[in-house]
Amino acid sequence: MKYTAHQFLTLLFIIACIAWTFHEPYAPGRASQAVPANAAFYSRHVDFAGRWQTLMGNPAIHGAIVAAGMEEKKLKDLVADSSTAQWVDKLASDESVIAWVPAMGHHRKPAWLITSWIGGRGQQLRYLLAIAKPRKFHPRKPYRGRKIWKIDLGEKPGKPSLSVSIAEGLLIGCYSEDPFAIHAAIDSLDGLEPDLGDRPQGALNQLNTWAGDARDHGFLKLPSATFPQPGFFRVDQVSKRHLSGSMQAAWLHTDHPAFTPEHGIDQTRTLLGDIPLGVMMVPTDLLAELCSFKLLSSKAQKYGTLLNHIPSKNITLALLGDEFKGNMKDIGIPSLVLAVKLRSVEQGPKFAEACIETMNGLHKLDLRSERVTGHARPVFALQGAGDEVYSYFRGDDRAGYVLLDDMIVIGSHLGPLRRLADRYDTPVAEFEARQGRWLPELFLHHNNGFLWMDAAKGSKAVREAIAANKLRLLFDDPIEHRQTIKKWERTGKWLKQVEPVETIRLWHRMDEGNNQIRFSLGVPPHS
User: What is the tens place of the pLDDT at every residue in 211-227?
Assistant: First the structure.
């Protein structure tokens, strides 16, 4: 069959029309334009579909989703479901955005927004919804020429619902108590209301400059005048066992130099060696600024005044377990020690008494220190002399402190503290001062703050202590303690999600007036 030139041109025109119908040229940044300017949380992801299995299999991401409220079995089933992977491939292959808006739409209700660039697949999806009419997609009244569907999630009346719309290659999903909140996203997309990119010096512009080509990045705005600037985050590397990246915020103004051995770290390394389940080193002036925040209680602010007596550049807090764990009413729990380097050997007793006076004044206690015999180093127990619960603690269950030359070490439990003091002057301590698992990365990023935690052992130790205390409260008076029991149960469930991460590392430093925190969660590929 031969075609005339007219018929051939007509056929080409029809093919071009069909191709045009399903074609939508990629517009980078389009997914962000539907997010209102007052969004408090924003997270952008490129090629989410191509990394779906890796992202969902990462212990840190998996644990965060479960901790946020999703049942672990449902999450595992979702990831294993092949049809889910197909939908993710269709709807999140290019650019996707997740945002939380605290007040959205006419009724100013909070809402979660999910936007994703789907290009020409948007037309296909529109036709599919119009022709097939899936059972759980219910058409709603169009808005500004855009069709909207409500997705039946089996929610109860009055609970948040999910609405979706498709607009020029962009899929918009809105989860809110206000079923019309999605209208605000459409208005932002059409330029009728400000979106994230409308302000030249806005958070989105600053974020894009800082994050560069990171495929996963975002920001968080806190609802407080204390934190006027948003905090940025980006993920630089992600695998099934590791997640690393950076965070930046201008919330604090302390400009403290990086760690050096002269900051008392050599003594701390000898004290702790390879014992800790977790170690945190915080610059003293940074901690002082944190304690001054109006968001904190007046007690926390008054504790901050103690820092004025400390010349040390850093304060070290360690979580101990195994043979260095403590006891509370015959229940084994991890112990905490706080190490502070002072101006001189003579300042130790004065600083200790200042701490005791502050605790007595703030908590209406009557604590007194008493020297414990049998140790080469000065070891002191804190004994309660009043009617408070602490006054019934005896022996090694009490808190205490030890003076190690010009360093004072305060412990939550006297028993582990005594063992640390006796160990301090031994060859074992000197050897382990260079062998601790947390030590190799202490100076890694020219940092002035550091956190390391054995997530598996540390989380398990704390959960065991929570379980033991919960059992004690159940036998004591389950009705009176029900709120405490519930809080501990939630904390235990959250900590369980931390265990598979294996190792947590954070490095803090100041960079051009901004706080920079590098994070590494899990086992790096080179380990």
Answer: 888 999 999 887 766 66
Buried b / exposed e across 161-200, counting CB within 10 Å, b at 16+? bbbbbbbebbbbbbbbebbbbbbbbbbbbbeebebbbeee
CA-to-CA distance for 24 and 341, rounded, in angstroms? 64
pLDDT at 373 over 60: yes
Query: Per-residue pLDDT for 59 more than 80?
Result: yes
Position 175: which residue type?
A: Y
**The length of the chain, given as a count of residues:** 527
Return d(Cα 363, Cα 299) in angstroms, integer.
9
Q: How many of the other CB atoms lie within 10 Å of CB of 320? A: 27
Q: Which two tokens stand for residue 489?
A: 């149960």
72-80 vs 59-67: helix axis angle to the nearest 10?
Answer: 130
- State the virtual CA torsion across 251, 255, 260, 263 in degrees, nearest 10: -90
Mean pLDDT of the chain: 80
Pair 356, 420: CB distance under 8 Å: no
φ, ψ (nearest 5 deg) of residue 116? -150, 135
pLDDT at 17 over 60: no
Report, as an integer, the average pLDDT of 53-76.
82
Overall average pLDDT of the 441-462 stretch: 86
- Coil vs helix vs strand at 383: strand
Please, are residues 281 and 439 in contact by the beta-carbon 8 Å criterion?
no
- Give the phi and the psi of residue 183 in degrees, each rounded to 5: -60, -35
Q: Are 507 and 440 in contact (CB under 8 A)?
A: no
Predicted pLDDT of residue 18: 41
| C-beta atoms surrounding 241 within 10 Å | 18
Q: Residue type at 251?
A: W
Q: How far apart are the C-alpha atoms of 40 and 38, rounded to whole Å?
A: 6
CA dihedral defined by 420, 425, 430, 435, rounded to 10 degrees? Answer: -10
**Among candidates 446, 436, 459, 455, which has minimal Cα distance to 523?**
455
Task: Grade residue 9 by pLDDT with cuts at 50, 70 and 90.
Answer: very low
Give the CA dihedral 67, 70, 74, 75, nearest 10 degrees: -60
